[in-house]
Design a protein that fits this description.
single chain; globular; binds flavin-adenine dinucleotide
């Protein structure tokens, strides 16, 4: 690694940096931070990424996988905006599969098992090759902010950061905080608690939490998550588990890639096994030794620990997936066995599963609790409403998962750069992308438990498909946002022009080719064999055209709803409205909700819990008269 990317691993004292003033500083080199830093630099900002350890940039803290149902859509969208994670997934993937195949292609979930080391290497080399981006190893101790504006009490402006070591300050017009599970992080194993953001890594300093809570007055909550023990592969009897092969033909995440790095025949399998009554017994017997599970802090509902699973559904057997950790790794990741009991009890527990009756643990599972900032305090550009130039992304906003972090990171990075370069913020609507759905859910509804993406969260999922993320986002990304390279732009234009030509041809048939293509047993290949001259040049798009034909009628029906929402989203509500003195008829409860959340548009107000249709009608009148 050191020889391969010599510049990346050079860690210099901050005082040796070529400049002491940046447009954007990104704090944290996880999934949010790496996308944020790369995106800010692509937009044109001089960017500094400060992270605790350079060699952990792009580390997969928990599961060695990317994508899945809802999450795969986010990866495709990040890729369409020229982000890193899709291409990194294609480089590091060792087992590709499309989940949810039994349902329609709109909700298919592209997913891959990853080689941890390859993933990190790809992200690190990409960052190293990004113009205008400097990477510094260091821990940020404090955010530098101005005193509140006397005319707007509580309103600050960020001016930079102060590093922990050497007390060195660096100035910036905007700062993106992506501290993940590290903000006031505590690790839990059995009855032991220690400060930490991830095993082997110190937590983010108390000074940072202090700035957010005390100086900026932000509402902070606490969440938790956990990870399973890593199992020595050779100690597992895989003949007692069910082999789960990958897809025969791996589907790349990135629109730029025709193939994945891993050849189809070199992919590694996963294995499926199940818990036994013995597992439940060990969990129950050891509850008094397990302080993480006794806490009230909310954990991820859709990725629960084995303790939560057996306590919630007693008597059931639960799936355990044994997943490879990498091409040369001798470890397996037992998905479904996240646990926080003492290490000796963890060993007893896993040995209750027949395939693991002689298994050895390399590193035990553990839990982590961390601070998050209630995300209703952010604008749809992911900027803290009360602090100019401060952006937050990733787990710090109450989400869970690499994909959710990457998506927010990219968008926060884009907007931080635009803020620093005096450009207006850009917003993604929930009608055009899953990233828009994610951000809108966070900033209007907030979170009470770690938020993860599902296709069911997107009202217009038939239009927001994995196959068309490029057409939805790349052109906007190039012209309105400024984060897309000319290489990707040109490829998207080629695809768009080709699709337009072939669609025109198909729609011009006497009996529309698109109508015919809707039928289950009709494929584009069949039509092309009838009209080889006109259609065979477009064979590379056969699957996209089939999907387009199937969903087109439904998408046409939804157009009106999409237009209505877009109209409401274009009606902005000033962030400094005094809702308590607004001269319209609103109940005290509604005024309180509006005052707390401060929705930035009428559309966002309609999605707030507790806001009645009557209240929206009053707000609409108000917005019309003032806008
Ligand atoms: P992270 O990937 O955590 O990255 C944060 C980065 O910020 C790190 O590089 C850190 O060094 C750096 N940093 C922090 N503070 C500072 C500072 N003051 N100065 C400089 N650098 C700083 N996700 C799931 O989807 N399901 C799960 O079950 C799950 N379980 C998990 C279990 C554990 C124990 C952990 C640790 C994570 C788990 N995750 C899980 C979460 C997953 O790792 C995150 O969702 C994802 O990594 C979030 O990305 P991020 O960029 O927000 O933060």
């Amino acid at each position: 690694m050191k020889q391969k990317y010599p510049n990346l691993l050079v860690s210099r004292p901050a005082s040796h940096l070529a400049r002491q003033q940046y447009d954007v500083i990104v704090v944290g080199g996880g999934h949010a931070g790496t996308e944020a830093a790369a995106a800010a630099a692509r937009v044109g900002a001089e960017t500094l990424l400060v992270t605790q350890k350079i060699h952990t940039i792009g580390a997969l803290s928990c599961n060695p996988s990317l994508g899945g149902v809802g999450k795969g859509q986010l990866v495709k969208e990040v890729d369409a905006l020229d982000g890193l994670c899709g291409r990194a997934g294609d480089w590091a993937g060792i087992h590709f599969s499309i989940l949810n195949r039994r349902k329609g292609p709109a909700v298919w979930g592209p997913r891959a098992q990853l080689d941890r080391q390859r993933y990190r290497e790809f992200i690190q080399s990409e960052l190293l090759g990004t113009p205008r981006l400097t990477v510094l190893e260091g821990s940020v101790e404090e955010l530098l902010v101005t005193e509140p504006n006397p005319e707007k009490p509580g309103h600050h402006r960020v001016t930079g950061i102060r590093l922990a070591n050497g007390n060195h300050s660096i100035s910036a017009s905007s700062v993106v905080l992506t501290t993940g599970t590290f903000l006031s992080g505590s690790l839990f194993m059995g009855q032991t608690t220690s400060p930490g953001g991830r095993i082997g890594d110190a937590p983010s300093s108390a000074g940072l939490s202090h700035t957010l809570r005390e100086r900026l007055g932000l509402r902070i909550g606490r969440l938790r998550t956990g990870t399973p023990p890593r199992i020595v592969k050779d100690s597992v009897d895989l003949s007692q588990a069910k082999l789960h092969p990958p897809d025969r033909h791996p589907t790349p995440f990135s629109f730029l890639n025709k193939n994945t790095r891993c050849k189809p025949e070199d992919q590694l399998p996963c294995y499926l096994t199940f818990t036994t009554p013995g597992v439940e017994r060990v969990v129950r017997e050891s509850l008094h030794l397990n302080c993480h599970i006794q806490q009230d802090t909310k954990g991820p509902r859709y990725c629960p620990s084995i303790e939560s699973r057996v306590l919630r559904f007693p008597g059931r057997r639960h799936q355990v997936w044994l997943e490879p950790e990498g091409v040369t790794s001798d470890l397996l990741y037992p998905q479904g066995l996240s646990m926080t009991m003492p290490p000796d009890v963890q060993l007893r527990l896993i040995r209750e599963i027949p395939a693991m009756h002689r298994a050895e643990i390399r590193t035990p599972g553990y839990g982590v609790q961390y601070d998050f900032v209630c995300p209703t305090q952010l604008s749809p550009a992911l900027q803290v409403k009360s602090t100019q130039g401060l952006f937050l992304a990733g787990q710090i906003n109450g989400t869970t998962g690499y994909e959710e972090a990457a998506a927010q990171g990219l968008w926060a990075g884009v907007n931080a750069a635009r803020w620093a370069l005096s450009m207006s913020p850009v917003i993604l609507s929930r009608t055009e992308s899953y990233i828009g759905v994610l951000i809108d859910d966070l900033v209007t509804r907030g979170v009470t438990e770690p938020y993860r993406m599902f296709t069911s969260r997107a009202e217009f999922r038939t239009a927001l498909r994995p196959d068309n993320a490029d057409l939805r986002l790349t052109l906007k990304g190039r012209y309105k946002v400024g984060c897309v390279s000319s290489l990707r732009y040109q490829e998207t234009v080629r695809v768009k022009d080709n699709l337009q030509e072939v669609l025109e041809f198909l729609c011009a048939f006497f009996l529309s080719g698109m109508d015919v293509l809707q039928y289950n047993d009709v494929s584009f290949e069949m039509l092309a064999s009838v009209f080889p001259e006109c259609l065979s040049p477009y064979m590379e798009f056969s699957q996209r055209l089939k999907i387009e034909a199937v969903y087109r009628p439904l998408c046409d029906l939804q157009k009106k709803d999409i237009e209505r929402i877009q109209k409401e989203e274009n009606m902005s509500l000033p962030l400094d409205i005094d809702y308590f003195s607004l001269p319209v008829s609103l109940s005290q409860e509604v005024r309180e909700i509006l005052d707390r959340v401060r929705p930035s548009t009428l559309g966002a107000a309609t999605r707030l819990e507790g806001i009645t249709p009557a209240a929206i009608a009053h707000l609409l009148n108000y917005a019309r008269h003032t806008g």
